[in-house]
Amino acid sequence: MWEKQQNSKKFRKGVEYGSARWGDKDEIKPYMSENPWLNIPLTATESITMESRPKNPKYARNKNILVIGGSGSGKTRFFVKPSLMQLNCSYVITDPKGTLIGETGKLLKRGAPKRDKTGKPIRGKDGKIIYQPYVIKVLNTINFSKSLHYNPFAYIKSEKDILKLVTVIMANTKGDGEKENQDFWYKAERLLYTALIAYIWYEGDEDEKNFSTLLDLLNESEVREEDEEFKNPVDLLFEELEEQDPEHFAVRQYRKYKLAAGKTAKSILVSCGARLAPFDIRELREIMSYDEMELDMIGNRLTALFLIMSDTDTTFNFVIAMLQSQLFNLLCDKADDKYGGRLPIHVRVICDEFANTGQIPQFDKLIATIRSREISASIILQSQSQLKTLYKDAADTIVGNCDTTLFLGGKEKTTLKEISEILGKETIDLYNTSETRSNQKSYGLNYQKLGKQLMTEDEIAVMDGGKCILQIRGARPFFSDKYDITKHPHYRYLADADPKNWYRSDKEIHPMYLPKPEEEVEVIEVDLSQAE
């Protein structure tokens, strides 16, 4: 008996070199909801549920999705639009060309039908379907005249928020040749920004809490190299504040900044001026003078916030990065402090052209923790190397916290290699025939097994344009057709289906007021003919 155990063999017939294979329709079912309106469409045949707590906990997956596709692969058409047509959560969407809001806005304004647990629309006493229209918000960094106002100062609630705001400003307004965060000038600038923003937040009037006031304070921070005793107006403001409260947060920061000698302080101010140069544009200062975004309400009511940015010029993309950073932190804090850890309405942040948006500080930590708060991020890239360029070593952590990866096509070598490796190897059969020619001919047949990538790099590179690869953590990969948006019940409300459905966001932002017949109004007559 002992000898038999010693000589026993372990065979894995048919999977000697790998067990990789494509998933089938039965393997995706546990990840989908029976109610189709509670799903996120990914391919023509696969979706994942929006439910955070499915019936069987082992099939619970976070809603963070990594979408990779080269230019023209259909990232917006095959992923973003199907997600918006579901109308099952609040959305924060980056819109690189500014066309997505026009194409989908009418559907969102009409809203989502109220549905029961089975997905059937709920009707009122009059028999009509009850709709829940979305609140539509727009931040437009291409055309400021078509944008609502966004003021980062409106979301500062504590000294911690001041530090976060300074961090995001520094991270997204640095030049290409600027050194890492350990640079002396970086730290000195940070001290000055922190001191000035803290002063504005604590001591300023409501209409002064904005970037215009910050620029005014910087402009008044004159330094004279030859006169170390010279005091500018800002020095006098902080001296007055120090007399009232020597341990004031703003005073402590400013005191550290003033340790710099006159010549050094002048260099720091020059760096600050260069960094905040975009704010010299009057239009930018104007849209950031007060706030209309109501970011803290996105998890309370159905909202669609469109962040319109240029896909050719990144000058103002730091504003969007600033908003996204504040949004994640604000919603997490609100979920913890007010709702016991979970927002009433799930918030999906769909980051199209994520690599061009700007850097969100500590995003690798945020994406790992937002799941439990009913927040998720969909990261859309042209290649995985873009993420590594922006987030360096943290890129792998970000990818690792996306339970779902959707590849729509591309030819970037690093991406092709990583996808091929993750798909794994399958075991294939190999037959070799041989022929020996001599006085007596002989033939041979050899059979063996080999391992082959389920899909090699060159096969992925020439993948049919209508196909995609879907990978969900814990499931076999799926090789499927891309989602056909024309088959969605809400497709007819998009501008893709009918140009008449184009949504004019500028009319919503600056509507012309029309009084109702029963309203009392004051009529003022002005004779323009007498005007000179």
Could you explain the architecture of this structure?
Helix content is 35%, strand content 16%. It is an alpha/beta fold. It has 2 domains: 302 residues, 3-Layer(aba) Sandwich (Rossmann fold); 132 residues. Strands 7-8-4-9-10-3-11-14-15 form a 9-stranded mixed beta sheet, with helices on both faces. Strands 1-2 form a two-stranded antiparallel ribbon. Strand 1 and strand 2 form a beta hairpin.
Concise structural overview:
This protein has 532 residues and is of the alpha/beta class. 35% of the residues lie in helices and 16% in strands.
Radius of gyration: 29 Å
| Strands ordered across the widest β-sheet | 7-8-4-9-10-3-11-14-15
Named CATH topology of the largest domain:
Rossmann fold
Query: Can you tell me the CATH class of the largest domain?
Result: Alpha Beta
Q: What is the first-to-last residue Cα distance?
A: 115 Å
CATH architecture of the largest domain, please? Answer: 3-Layer(aba) Sandwich
What's the CATH H-level superfamily name of the largest domain?
A: P-loop containing nucleotide triphosphate hydrolases
The number of helices is 19
